[in-house]
Amino acid sequence: MNRYDVFIRGSGIVGKALALALAKAGLGVALGRTPARAAAEDVRTYALSARSVALLRSVKAWDALPPDAATPVYDMRIEGDAAAGTTLPGVLQFSAWEQQVGELAWIVDAAALEDALSQLVRFQPHVTEVEAAMPAALTAICEGKESAAREALGVEWQRHAYGQTAIAARLASDRPHRGIARQWFRSPDVLALLPFDRPEAGGSYGLVWSVPEARAAELMGLDEAGFMQALQEASGGAAGALSLRSARVAWPLSLAQASRWSGPGWVLLGDAAHVVHPLAGQGLNLGLADVDALARVLREREPWRPVGDEKLLRRYERERAAPTWAMGRVTDGLLHLFAAPAAPLRELRNSGLGLVNQLSPVKRWLTRRALDS
Q1: How confident is the model at residue 171 (pLDDT cuts 50, 70, 90)?
Q2: pLDDT higher for 341 or 65?
Q3: Which fold has domain 4-42+51-70+107-160+256-338?
Q4: Environment class of residue 285 by beta-carbon count within 10 Å: exposed (0-12), middle (13-18) or buried (19+)?
């Protein structure tokens, strides 16, 4: 008889959140420790949806965050590039007030969230951290996009490289952010400034800048002054005078999905199952939605059905496959639409932004999809 109900491969945010959610359901969990990496500053910030926040609240992680580790987004402003013959870009704006919600999203410090989850795992009696694989009725694979366990199962990894690189950093501004997230979709890059209260309250941003690989190499090779000049030009000063407050990190971007997410005694979650472009900020939200769905499927299973039952795990896969596929198609479509340099397409997409901005029902539908992802 197995000592554990579930063995989780991968102890990142998704793996730890799953361990806590399953322990809350009374399951015995072994959490495999991820090998330690060289110490480096973690400059990542995540935009979390209402569903993700609700999950983190349910496992006590949200309330364990330091007060300045999560910043609410009250407004979002999205700009395209100027259409042919014009000087003004298309603009799409969302507000929490207009959508009748408290906030559109929360921008969260990745390191602080990982620390909060780690502390909760350490004191959760139903979770045991282990160094090696443990026999269990179910193995949950949360190792990320380079998962060796997924490969060992013979699952096909369908990957399309975008030829783009994401650059992330922490910034400070001489102006308060006022809870406004700013994003620019311009051929061929996507720039996002996410309001964030660390390290300087009221005037800081998390940067995610997706650019072609060659341009990314140029930007990463610039000194701080050169990089900030390029960023200031790209943002047009809309967020004030920006300054760098961290190291810069970069990683290649792709669209990927596993051909299968489950089988007898195993299941994939998070980046081990799917990867999308970060332009919509939905990567971690999709992973936490996987956690939410799997925990509920296991919790509501028939009393006689084991947690590793293949038919049971297919319920989870069916529930998550469609919304994840749809989000991948949406982000991929937006990227290709806004990356196209042709003037007619530029005019069409900017007109489209302006049109959607005037259609309240459409904006409400888009907001609900993002909040519930």
Answers
A1: very high
A2: 65
A3: FAD/NAD(P)-binding domain (3.50.50)
A4: buried
